[in-house]
Each structure stands twice: as structure tokens, then as C-alpha cells.
# Entry
Amino acid sequence: MQEGANTLPKITLGDAPYVKAFKYWKKKIKLAKIADLSARDVERANFVFSIYDFEGNGTVDAVNLGDMLRALNLNPTLSTIEKVGGTKRRVNEKKLKSDEFLPIFSQVKKDKEQGGFEDFLECLKLYDKEENGKMMSAELSHTLLSLGERLSDAETDELLKDCMDTEDDDGFIPYERKY
# Structure
């Protein structure tokens, strides 16, 4: 039997019994962790992995883990990324192989605590007192500074400057664009 993505490891006769058992169960656990991924998911994950494999040696830097998961249409928090093995802003601190990335992708994909764009808009509608698609710029700034994964003052200012329209005379900004 040939060793591949869905087969158990080849065990040679020279291996000690405990080494054989360890190889067997390690591979079996890894397969179980990614069993919920479809062939399409695995293909997409491998494609994203290949894009972030800048050196072409079959590894990616763990500092890019969040970007990779976001490229796969997931929305993990910074704490989730750190919990599953990502690193903060230190290049070459930790490297991940493809067979390590697939279980991480599977685990984050199963996480139901992440919200999407529509969830974010629903939250912003809570601050729209006149129900006209506008909210106070100061309220959005305060929310970004104080709730959830808090942003710094500089990050908040940059986000508002880059992503939001300028506020009107009354301090309101539109939070939802109509295309």
C-alpha cells in the first residue's frame, strides 16, 4: 500500500513496536482532524498554502497564518490565530508545513464564534438611531477602541480614514454603502 494523504504510514520491520504504534496513531489522528474537509476545501487550502510558500520549500511562516485563513474566507480573531499556532510579527519564528496547516484550517473552519460582514452590519445598525444608514463617527471610534479585540488610537484613526467617508456637519458617517 502506498503512503499518501488518506493512507496510514508505511511501517518497516526494523521499527520498535512502540514506534510502529506511535506512527500509526499519529497519522490516524491527523486524518481524523481533516476528515471533515471536502476535497475542494483541501484543494483551496493547498492553493493558499502554495501562495504563501515564498521560498518554495513546502513551509510557510506562522506569522502569515491569519492572512492564509482569511484568504480561505474565514474570519479568525487574533487570539484564535495565536491559539492555533500563529505568531505575532516575528518573521521566521515558526514555520508550518502543509500537513500542519490542514488541521488548523479544519479547526478554525468549525469555529462558530466568528462573524461575517452581515453580522458586523447588524451590530452597526444598533447605533443607527434614525435608521437612515448613518451613525455617529465618535460612537464607531469608541466601539473600536473599547469592545472586542480593541484597536489602538492610531489603528482606529487609520481605519476610519481609509475605510469610512468623511463625517457630515453633525458628526455622522454612512456605515453601509449602496453599490
Summary: Residues 39-110 form a domain with the Recoverin; domain 1 fold (CATH 1.10.238.10).
